[in-house]
Amino acid sequence: MKKTLFLSPPSFDGFDGGAGARYQAKREITSFWYPTWLAQPSALVPGSKLIDAPAHYQTVDDVLKIAKDYELVIMYTSTPTLPNDVKCAEAIKAQNPDTQIGLLGAHAAVLPTETLAENPILDFVCRNEFDYTCQELAQGKSYDQIKGLSYRDQFGNIKHTEERELIHDWDAMPSVFPVYADNLNFRNYFIGYLLHPYVSLYTGRGCPAKCTFCLWPQTIGGHQYRAKSPDAVGQEMALAKSIWGDSVREYFFDDDTFTIDKKRVMAISEHLKKLNLTWSCNARANLDYDTLKTLKDNGLRLLLVGFESGNQKVLDGVKKGIKLEVARKFMENCTKLGIKVHGAFIIGLPNETRETIEDTIRFACEVSPHTIQVSIASPYPGTELYKQAQENGWFTNNNLVASSGIQLSTLQYPDLSSSEIEDAVEQMYRRFYFRRQTIVPIVKEMLVDPQMLVRRLREGREFMSYLKERHTRSLVNA
């Protein structure tokens, strides 16, 4: 085995752009997702090391001190962080020109030729579902014998091997938990709506939904959900319990479609109940009452739900596959059962107007999830939304984030400017959070949990600073 380093490079201050974040941007409050896209191949390479620099506040100099001892460096990149990531690669190469350096991630998978052509410091790019590609790189296989690889040959020519098949035997995939335990400080990972400390994981990949904006299914994971069996997940969670005991307060299942197979998720929840674990997961807003009750009885605390918009035309335009009346009933059932919901919304999707933005704000206030996040529509390369934006001339620029890491709108429409889309984010946050219906439950939560009290006060300061930064940016651009 080559001595292999898996690296999420240093980035903007407080930037949640690592291998796991669905939106590579600085969030409203300190947020760090686990680097799952790097941890999984790392679990296949004995003796490898994983560095998640942003979450551990490591600089390029810190990384260089470690990287000097490694033959192979595999870095995660994203569309907004690519230029910054390449600079880190250049620093590693300058220190040791013999180091092999390559990238993985959705941007590199979709644009392998462009990524290599524009960045001659790189030796290779891993495409699509890349776990076993990384393993074979570490084993020292010749580039031309590794499926799913784009590389620069000895003459500088860019070559592509045949596509690698998607992984179907997920029970054979090793757990990421030992990688986390050996390489990461789990107390450094915060998500505003999850208990702290938390641990997140994937139990499978792929999503049958066809949402035009969603990154992973259209670039890496595909539209077929392939997952571990309930017994395998149960064994993995027992391993987690043996590693962290009761130190971890919540486990988050980050599968795009964790609840899509109701029989499977209920079987998994039975294992979680036996282990006495508190857990949360991604879900679509269409689960029925009986399923929700079973999951709640088996330890479910919170659901992360992508509502996206409060306007049906906007939802239909992005192929969301959810009706607003179904989402309303879902929220009614969650409220009855005491299941907290973190609602995810997107401003600036196709068909968006000033009126549909108002519909979304009113819908969010009506169904009133415990917390919300408001993102700006991001047309990542490889998505249908990106193609639509190109064909319709919606792009204003190619910068998905500002120099500070805050998300920007790269889209505008005939009757809606990019600045109006950006302004609507602040407006929605203010109108949702500065309400009695939102403030009272959060205050009650703080009063019964001293840790939550300290945390929410910190998050409140960060949130107000975030809104101020957005507002200042809007005034500058006015």
TrEMBL record:
> Matching SUPFAM superfamilies, A to Z?
Radical SAM enzymes (SSF102114)
Q: Which InterPro entries match?
A: Aldolase_TIM (IPR013785), BchE-like (IPR051198), Elp3/MiaA/NifB-like_rSAM (IPR006638), Hopanoid_synth-assoc_rSAM_HpnJ (IPR017834), Methyltransferase_Class_B (IPR034466), rSAM (IPR007197), rSAM_sf (IPR058240)
Q: What is a single molecular function from GO for this protein?
A: metal ion binding
Signal sequence residues? none
Sorted UniProt keywords: Iron, Iron-sulfur, Metal-binding, S-adenosyl-L-methionine
Q: Which cofactor does it need?
A: [4Fe-4S] cluster
One Pfam match: Radical_SAM
- Residues forming the Radical SAM core domain are 193-435
Say which domain of life the source belongs to. Bacteria
GO CC terms in record: cytosol
Do the record's keywords include Nucleotide-binding?
Answer: no
PANTHER family given in the database record? ANAEROBIC MAGNESIUM-PROTOPORPHYRIN IX MONOMETHYL ESTER CYCLASE-RELATED, SLR0320 PROTEIN
What name appears for this protein in its UniProt entry?
A: Hopanoid biosynthesis associated radical SAM protein HpnJ
